[in-house]
Specification:
- The complex is a heterotrimer of chains A (516), B (363) and C (351).
- Helix content of chain B is 69%, strand content 1%.
- Chain B has 363 residues and is mostly helical.
- Chain B has one domain: ABC transporter involved in vitamin B12 uptake, BtuC (Orthogonal Bundle), CATH 1.10.3470.
- Chain B has a two-stranded antiparallel sheet.
- Chain B is globular and about 60 Å long.
- Chain C is of the alpha/beta class.
- Chain C has eleven helices and twelve strands.
- The chains are: A alpha/beta (516), B mainly alpha (363), C alpha/beta (351).
- Chains in contact: A-B, B-C.
Chain lengths: 516, 363, 351
Amino acid sequence: MSEQAERGGDVVLKLSGVVKTFPGVRALDGVELEVRAGEVHCLLGQNGAGKSTLIKVLAGVHRPDSGDVQWLGEQVSFSGPQAAMKAGIATIYQELDLVDELSVAENIYLGHEPRSLGFVHKGQAARQARELLGRLGHGEIPAHRLVRSLPAAGKQIVSMARALSHSAKLIIMDEPSAVLAHDEVGNLFRIIRELTAQGIAVVYISHRLEEIREIGDRVTVLKDGRTSAVNLPARTTPTRDLVSRMTGRSIEYVFPPRPDTAPGEKLLEVRGLGRSGEFTGIDLDVHAGEIVGIAGLVGSGRSEVLETVFGARQAEAGTVVMDGRALPPGNVAAAVRAGLGMAPEERKSQALLLGQPIYRNMTLTNFSSYATAGFTDAGKEQAEASRVADTLELRPRDVRRAVRTLSGGNQQKVVVGRWLLGRTRLLLLDEPTRGVDVGARAELYQVIRDLAANGVGVLLVSSEVPEVLGLSDRVLVMREGRVVRTAPATDLSEEDVLDLVMAGSLTAATTEEVAA
Amino acid sequence: MSVSSEQKVDNGAVGHAPHPAPAAQKTSWWKDEAQESTRRNLGLVGVLLALFAIGAFIRPDLYSDADWVVNNIMVILTQAAAIGVITVGMTFVIIGGGIDLSVGALIALSGVWATTLATQSFGPVGMIFTAVAVGIGAGLVNGALVAYGKLVPFIATLAMLVAARGLAAQISGKQTQISTDTFINSLATTRPLGIPMLVIILLVVAGLGWVLLNRTTFGRRTVAIGGNPEAARLAGINVRGHTMLLYALSGLCCGIAAIMLTSLATSSQAAAAELYELDAIAAAIIGGTLLSGGRGTIVGSLFGVIVFSAITNLFAIANLPTEVQNMVKGAIIVVAVLLQQVRFSSITQFARRHGLTRAKPQT
Amino acid sequence: MTNPIPDTSRRRLLFGGTAIAAGALLTACTSNEQTPTPTQTKGADTENPNTAAGKAVTIGFSAPAADHGWIAAITNNAKAQAGAYKDVTFKQVEAGKDAAAQRAALDTLIAEKPDVIVLLPHDGKELNAFGLKAMEAGIPVVNLDRAFPDALAYRLQIKGDNYGMGVAAGHYIGKTLKAKNVASPIIGEIAGMDELELTQERSAGFKAALATYGFTVANRRAARFTADSGQKEAQNLLQALPKMDALWNHDDDQGIGVLAAITAANRSEFFMVGGAGSKKAIEDIAADKTVLKATVTYSPSMASSAISLARLIAQGRGMSDLVELQVPKEVILASETITKENASTYLKLGF
């Protein structure tokens, strides 16, 4: 291949037939990957395609169930992240794993401080840290400064310096540009180029096609835990090719049929909603019986829009009107009273009391309505919760069980069930199927559609494009805090949406290719 | 709006893997939360019995006298009474995700305020009103600092601890204030039906606390806020307002305890109830209250208090010095918490190995 | 949906009103006004030439701020005694909460050049250096109760006798029991804060005195100098000793709680001796209605004496009953035993 001539390093890492399963999910199902010294190898794939699992296998966090990992020509099996790091593989995670209260130098050398007899040579550590930062072109970051006080871009430099401090031969970067402003991305690329010039290999994960075109050498595409294409030339492969290899997922998404009836009266009207740094000028309507979906990448502002509508974040501009009445901004209680309900993205940390029984979780928003003079009525609550549990096909059916014993799908049903008990008329769902295994999804889809059939309006956010398209009646596509397209779901294809969220527009990308 | 039960979700549409069969309706008893706390309480009862056995071994002459034994139990309960009342409040605060370090100081402040000559001139009603009002007032200040001032509970109540002791010293002029009110003083000496009045007060407070925690919306909100504040907020619960009420409740308990302690000592002073906050926290913890919030029981906390009170009593009867007693108390706190952790995790592992419970769901 | 605002505001108003009313009532309740307790001072004595006005002197004074009645009495006594002399200017500085704070306060006092300084240090060892400094600057220092290790650091030391307190209590109990012909008596002891040296000294004296009668302590509990801790320890002690002959309680403040426990337990087969000599204890002894039959003193009246002697030092006068022309260097108060018979004479010294 021509790329080999272009960046002709030796193969440092070679994966073949790597499989990793979790209970209920086959996350990696035969992955192939080949990374050469001095190249930038891009990983592309939709959410849930297995990118995160693959990274964790490379970083030594997960051990593959089967398959072959060759590192520097030898078959290896890392016992843990430390082993991978020792071998020369460093990972920069999306959530930077730095200790805020330690200094830059302390973070860089955390766990492998230059020391003798248990005493850390602070001076030496600081000197070496300055050297590393200088190598990254950021000698101006003071080594003694607390990491807490650095901006996101600075933290990323520190993470990279840490990787270098291990004398890494391969650096994995998981969406490094997601936290950076535009001009900082340029600097990131300059650093990546310097690293590769020194023969260091980089595995680069990003959703932004233009970045891949600019920095990448070769691309491997993941779909459903398999590699659907390996070693495509990053610059010249047409966008349509890349997109088509990411889409058309083999898993059967079975969506309930859309009803023929037109949606009812308007429930929610959002006009000009904005929060600085998150999103601006959002207009959207939801009618009774209608499912409206928002598609977009992580960081496009979609979850933030949902939380702002609900009042969990305070709107800085614009209005949220429910049933013709404006909702006070930043007031969840008022939103709940007006008939809104939300199933947040992080089920466990934002919605559930894991140690508490199912019925108490279901009645969390309205247990007062079963109470007489402040005294709760457990029998009535359990009866009502059981009724909803029947409707939702909740398993196990015993509503006195602690929620933490349920599977992800059933936990999600508990959250949805909570709003069914109340007088909720508009349900906001943020990633409703995250962590829900494939089988249970169809049930959730049916539940959501049944809700709509009963006149509930649904506003839905998902990073899985087929889900948004298959479940919604209307779709809003968001990119960088703005709605770039609104259309009936039937008018959009998966490719259209992917292209919109990743590059802006198909036509624009094609023109670029022609120009290149 | 709600979905009627006639609407069945059509889940046969997809060829997805069948769910694991619904677990048997009868859950393994150690997995059940209620049973878990029952087991813990039984453990504390075991400790009490062991303490009794040790006492009987050391002083058979005393323990063979039934009247003495009954009286000694009443003494242990009487000494648990004031701390028990504040531990009820403390349990609420801790379940709600906070901590109240100011309880000892608030007892001193309430007690001193209620025994000034001016207050005593209003009679027992005035004294009780003052103690309770001061307790609630200081509790509200704690709550406001935590809920609206965004102070860490540890810091806010630590500040209150220092300030309340200072104010108490100021009001009392650093003197021990003697209570001359016969009604208040008689609380410690009367024994309706052979049970000391203070013990009855403790039982009433604990009973009300149990109902409040387990049977009311207030209790439900407390557990929700401590268990997952974000979920509680998104469920439309007024987290800040409720947090404030929790500290006020703790303050109310301090006011009640102040009257009880005043009655016991027939006096009050700024240095009274020294380190009661630590006793109350320790009792709640060994009673199974989770320091991070979201879980705890009134009965467990009560047993925790009684265990401490029984240890103090046993050491006096065995004529062993206080310093040894404090070391044993410390050891018991550590051992109790360690035992709880070891026991539950190992049992869960055992159960899982033998297929007695469902595997932990994938996260 | 109804608008909840008017409802809440009415509730708030109601609540606010109640809160203000309660606040006003509570504020009124902090008053402790009563007929002033006579402080322990030495009044003008025409027979004594030393009471005649002499050279005007300024006495600096410092004592720790503690929430214990005894320390409060020390400060009150010193102030009152100084007020009794027309030729004395009393200058008190706040001692703060620890030795360092007290040192800082005293340094400012030195700068004001008083004729003599009377102080009760937080810690004798830690303030030793200050004593030396003041003496070098020509300001005599009168040390109250907590001795400086260095003899050059003070002009006069006046203190109580903790060991002697225990001895006095032991002798009183020993003699009384011998007189009653109790063969092997059961004696209880409720000490103060066990980590303090003074508590250890008191217990050692008590033990030694009892030993001369062939008696021992059957059970000893340590309380915290507070009434509630005294009550708790006494209640347990009474359980441990269902029959007792005598009890010594180190401190009359915690004794309030001890007596409450004894009353509640309905016990009266023994007699009790107190410690320190509080006004309440002396009154109880005089009334003879409780088991408290005696108390051994550790009187804060030493502060009054310290001021009197400091004045004499500053004026260069001696104690007129002594042959020496100057005040002696050390005065250790004897621990006196107050019983029903002499209670009336000691009542004015109770604090």
